[in-house]
Structure formats: C-alpha cells, structure tokens
C-alpha cells in the first residue's frame, strides 16, 4: 500500500481542491482583492477535470497506437528503409507548435474537442516513437538469436521477447507524452474544448489572477497524479 501512497495523496488533493475550491475564497481574495468574483463558477471543476482527462486520454490512446505500431514496423526488415522518415515525421509533430496546429485545424474541423485531440496526438508522438525505437533497437542481438534458435517465429519473438524487454523504455516515452499533454491540453479552451484550461484563459482575458491560479493548480495536481501512477507502473 505504501507504494501507492504518492498517487493516492496527489489524487486525493486533486479531488479535494475540485470539491472545495469555494472554501478557499478568502485566500483567492488576497490574490485579487478588487475583483467581484475570485472563484471560477462558469462550470463545475469536477466536470472540467473529466473533460480534461477525456481529451488527454483519447489523444494519448491514438498516439500510443500509432507511435508504437509505426516504430515496430520500421524496425522490421521490410520497413527499415522508412525508419528515418518516421522519426522525422514524429519530430515535426512536436516542433510544430500546438497553437499553430489548432489555428490550421479549426477551419477544417470546427471548434470543439477534435482540433485539440489532433494537436495533442501530433505533439505526443515523438517521445513514444523515439523510446519505442530505442527500446527495440537496444535489445542484444544474441537474445534475438537465441529466440530464433528455440524455433520462435517473427511474431512470437516480437510479442514474447522484444516488446517485453523494451516495455520499460516504451513506458517511459508514454509517461513523458501523457504528462506533457496534460499541460498542453489547456489550450483546448481557446477553441471551445472546455476543460481545466477554461479558468486560465478566462483569467487571462479578464485579468483575474485568481482564476489562472485555480486552473494551473488543478492541472499541476493532475500531472503529478498521473506521473506518480506511471512511476508505480515502471518496472
């Protein structure tokens, strides 16, 4: 139970702040003494948390599926010629600013959750692809040769030898991708994808620092909760 203490503590604090944000009004009043409202109340914080998790979860799921699959395919003999191309495309996805992706996606996809999912998907691919390639290519050739000597086929070697051995490195890439996207997802509030970025954007627009602190606090706690969960899953 002690091993799960950190995720439970961070997760408990996250839920507590979502439920009791109004109780902290005196504290936020110190930050914004001249504002009529200091607690963001346009949406329930638990609802915003759920929407934030949904967007990050969907984007991360597709990033994992695409990233791991692409990395596996280009490490096979038939796809090795495409390895530089896949690595470059994944790098471009992260170097291209999410704000620019949103600006290009909104005219095509409209406002809402889809543009931010696309932006997070592109932004989260690089750590997953990079770590999957590193994990698979870092396996000792003698281990693969031993597996072949035991009569294992290519798919058996991939499923029973390569992926299990590369799993810690792959998981580290997924951990980085998801944690970074938790913060980046706040940009979705600018294109109508309501989430924990709403208080931050509203605070910036209305010059209300208390709103910004509330959104940033909850996103920070969510990132710590998820990161500590991944830490427990890391072999």
From TrEMBL:
Any single GO CC term annotated in Swiss-Prot or TrEMBL for this entry: plasma membrane
Entry superkingdom: Bacteria
Sorted UniProt keywords: Membrane, Transmembrane, Transmembrane helix, Transport
Transmembrane feature ranges: 48-74, 95-126, 211-231
CDD domains the record matches: TM_PBP2
Pfam family, any one: BPD_transp_1
Main location: membrane
Topology term for the membrane: Multi-pass membrane protein
Residue span, ABC transmembrane type-1 domain: 49-230
Subcellular location: Cell membrane
Nucleotide-binding is among the record's keywords: no
Iron as UniProt keyword: no
InterPro entries in the cross-refs: ABC_transp_perm/SBD, MetI-like, MetI-like_sf
GO biological process entries: glycine betaine transport; transmembrane transport
PANTHER family, alphabetized: GLYCINE BETAINE UPTAKE SYSTEM PERMEASE PROTEIN YEHW, GLYCINE BETAINE/L-PROLINE TRANSPORT SYSTEM PERMEASE PROTEIN PROW
Family the UniProt entry places it in: Belongs to the binding-protein-dependent transport system permease family.
Protein's UniProt name: Osmoprotectant uptake system permease
């Amino acid at each position: 139970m002690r091993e799960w203490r950190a995720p439970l503590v961070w997760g408990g604090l996250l839920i507590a702040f979502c439920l009791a944000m109004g109780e902290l009004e005196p504290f936020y009043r110190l930050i914004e003494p001249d504002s009529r409202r200091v607690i963001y109340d346009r949406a329930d914080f638990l609802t915003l948390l759920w929407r934030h998790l949904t967007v990050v979860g969907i984007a991360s799921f597709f990033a994992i599926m695409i990233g791991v699959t692409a990395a596996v395919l280009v490490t096979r003999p038939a796809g090795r010629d495409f390895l530089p191309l896949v690595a470059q495309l994944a790098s471009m996805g992260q170097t291209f600013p999410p704000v620019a992706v949103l600006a290009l996606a909104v005219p095509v996809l409209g406002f809402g959750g889809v543009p931010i999912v696309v932006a997070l998907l592109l932004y989260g691919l690089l750590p997953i692809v990079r770590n999957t390639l590193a994990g698979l290519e870092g396996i000792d050739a003698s281990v693969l040769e031993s597996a072949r000597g035991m009569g294992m086929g290519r798919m058996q070697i991939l499923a029973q030898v390569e992926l299990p051995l590369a799993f810690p490195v792959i998981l580290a890439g997924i951990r980085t991708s998801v944690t970074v996207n938790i913060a980046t997802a706040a940009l979705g509030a600018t294109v109508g994808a309501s989430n924990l970025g709403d208080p931050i954007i509203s605070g910036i627009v209305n010059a209300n620092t208390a709103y910004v602190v509330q959104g940033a606090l909850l996103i920070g706690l969510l990132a710590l909760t998820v990161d500590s969960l991944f830490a427990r899953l890391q072999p």
